Amino acid sequence: MCGIVGYVGDKECTPILIEGLRRLEYRGYDSAGVAVFDPSKEGMTISRVVRCRGKLANLENLLRDSKPTGRTGIGHTRWATHGRPSDENAHPHKSGLVSVVHNGIIENHQILRDGLKQKGRVFTSETDTEIIAHLVDEELKVDGKVTLREAVRRALKQVQGAYAIVVMADNMPDQIVAAKNASPLVLGLGDGENFIASDVPAILMHTRKVLFLEEGEIAEVRKTGIEVVDLDGKRVERAPKEITWSAVSAEKAGFKHFMLKEIHEQARAVTDTLRGRLSVEHNDAFLDGIELPDVATLKKITIIACGTSWHAALVGKFMIEQLARIPVEVDLASEYRYREPIITKGDLILAVSQSGETADTLAAIKEAKKQGAYTMCIANVVDSSIPRSCQASLYTHAGPEIGVASTKAFTTQLAALMLLAIHLGRRTKTLKDDRAKALIQEFLTIPHKMADIVGLAGQIQVIARRYGHARDFLFLGRGNNYPIALEGALKLKEISYIHAEGYASGEMKHGPIALIDEAMPVVVIAPKGPGYDKVMSNLQEVKARDGKIIAVCTRGDTDIGSLADECILIPETAPELQPLLTVVPLQLLSYYVADFKGTDVDQPRNLAKSVTVE
Ligand code: G6P
User: Fold this and answer.
1) What is the CATH number of domain 250-444?
2) SS3 for 593?
3) Domain boundaries, the chain
4) How many whole angstroms from 609 Cα to the centroid of ligand 1?
């Protein structure tokens, strides 16, 4: 994610930048920095960059003794994507005249970096952001008369990917330039001063008058005013908006809880997981250059994880076995290392972890590595303990997840596992051209479909109120939707404290059927696809015992309505991708039940976001 701030005006800007960054720390906190114009003795105004690894407090300590005193500046709080958290990778990045802060991912970073190196440019960080600083500086040097805005525009013409950037150039202390594509950026309009930020909370204490930048727009921000153009240099005119939220609700983007905000963020988060990794043209998925063991000799993959990440791992088993035909075992990390697992040298052991810090998962992966396995992880927090212990890491790029109940971390884990499955399937050659093409094309539509499902929140809220008094819930699913039933039950337990069980639909007759009566809501995941008919038979069994059925089913399904009491209709997708969609209504259902009951949704009792003890 990352948080960005910028200021142009008459006030000393370092305190304004730091306060803004504090309000954006929820977007990332592995390093922070500022660049502020400091008038120098020679009459040149150059930017002074102060940055370091760690939370904002570290930067504040650094600034305590020598604070830049200028009136124009930019700041950044980082959530690492390219390059581990370190002093060198912290933003702002400076090249020649130009300082830049960036939120996003540059997809064609390698090609651009190689081209710039050929021109003699020297890189001092591992980030994709530094490329932008070099590109803009090149433009300023090539054409001495070009404006900063125009130099940024020319540079961005070469860039593919997601970005929100703020740029300043030495000797142009009266302006900063901001640009946006896919990552958010808002301009705050003050009186004789103007602000830029990733999100409203950073500027709300200064102004409520804002202009949200749209895709492909570039803004030249001076203390006297703001001018916006598009990527072709054409002027854009738009009236500013007045923000009416309180500072607290602004941090949650107007949502009541972080969990609800994060449910809504999933379309964006999954888009970021896929960014630059999925190619229709090459019919393949790319894993950031990770060199996996040769599939010709790879006999087995073992996935280890805890909690919600374990549910993602269970779905991953379906994905990898179906597409790559490599056997996959899934283990709870807390069990794995105590059962003397059989590890053969060269086995691929994959840890799945949002935090990258879960003690059980970390210990399990260390044990596997000791025994000669090739260790890899899918993680959200860059350079956390688990990625540091593994030979390869595939990051989900979900951004910080604050709600204890995991939502966007889960769906991005599913997306990352699907990328891995496609990648392996293309190499084992079990995923043929036509199927790969269709699957990749469908995969790219998933974020859009997730956003569509989030639009059903109103209907799901009504259902939640209707059944929120129940003492127990049962969740049923088949095949790759069985882990989603487990996840649906876990979500409900975690935040609403209602007892819930997830079951494989076919197993219902071996036990849970005894529990069913008119007081028992049964949530059935029943999208069209393999196993649909069998799930319908299970529904008949529930109905015959007066159970209340809440069905998650495919839009256009006209049969299920006669059996189910409630139908949540979701868009159709490929069977392999269904879990990415079917889980979203279940997240919303548990959220609204918990909200209805008035529990502490973001910090449920007895739970922790990251469990670093055994
Ligand atoms: C805790 C959290 C869960 C999470 C689990 C594993 O129990 O409350 O939401 O799924 O840990 O965490 P990890 O960071 O390894 O995914």
Assistant:
1) 3.40.50.10490
2) helix
3) 3-243, 250-444, 445-600
4) 6
Distance CA 284, CA 328 (A): 21
Based on the residue annotation, tell me whether 209 is a catalytic residue of this protein: no
Amino acid in position 179: A
Best mutation site among 332, 360, 406, 491 for ligand 1 pocket (most ligand atoms within 8 Å of CB): 406
HEC string for 388-417: HHCCEEEECCCCCCCCCCCCHHHHHHHHHH
Report which residue type is found at 289.
G
Phi, psi of 167 (to 5 degrees): -125, 140
* DSSP-derived secondary structure for 3-24: EEEEEESSS-HHHHHHHHHHHT
- At 165-207, the pLDDT tens digits run 999 999 898 999 999 998 889 999 999 999 999 988 899 899 9
* Average predicted confidence (pLDDT) for the chain: 93
The pLDDT confidence band at residue 497, using thresholds 50, 70 and 90, is: very high
Residue 530 has pLDDT above 70, yes or no: yes
Q: What is the pTM of this model?
A: 0.82
Annotated catalytic residue: which of 67, 300, 369, 609? 609
Q: How confident is the model at residue 433 (pLDDT cuts 50, 70, 90)?
A: very high
Give yes or no for residue 39 having a pLDDT over 80.
Answer: no
Quote the ligand 1 centre to 308 CA distance (angstroms).
6
pLDDT for residue 41 is more than 60: no
Task: Name every protein residue with a CB atom under 6 angstroms from any ligand 1 atom.
Answer: 306-309, 353-355, 358, 361, 404, 406, 607, 609-611
> Are 250-444 and 445-600 in the same CATH fold?
yes
- Tell which CATH classification among 3.90.226.10, 3.60.20.10, 3.40.50.300, 2.30.30.40 matches the domain 3-243: 3.60.20.10
Name the residue of 493, 600, 610 whose CB sits within 8 Å of the most ligand 1 atoms, as the mutation to test its pocket. 610
For residue 526, the tally of other CB atoms under 10 A from its CB is 30
Order of all β-strands in the sheet with 548-554: 499-504, 472-477, 521-526, 548-554, 566-570
Q: What atom of ligand 1 comes closest to residue 308's alpha carbon?
A: 10
CA distance 521 to 100: 54
User: Hey, how many other C-beta atoms are within 10 angstroms of the C-beta on 64?
Assistant: 8
Catalytic residue among 2, 306, 377, 567: 2
Say what the pLDDT of residue 36 is. 96
Question: What distance in Å separates the CA atoms of residue 299 and residue 470, rounded to the nearest whole number?
Answer: 46
In 3D, which of 159, 219, 209 has the Cα closest to residue 4?
219
What atom in ligand 1 is closest to the CA of residue 358?
15
The class (CATH top level) of 445-600 is: alpha beta
Give pLDDT, residue 251.
76
Of all protein residues, the one whose alpha carbon is nearest to atom 3 of ligand 1 is 307
Q: Whose CA is nearest to atom 4 of ligand 1?
A: 307
| CA-nearest residue, atom 7 of ligand 1 | 307
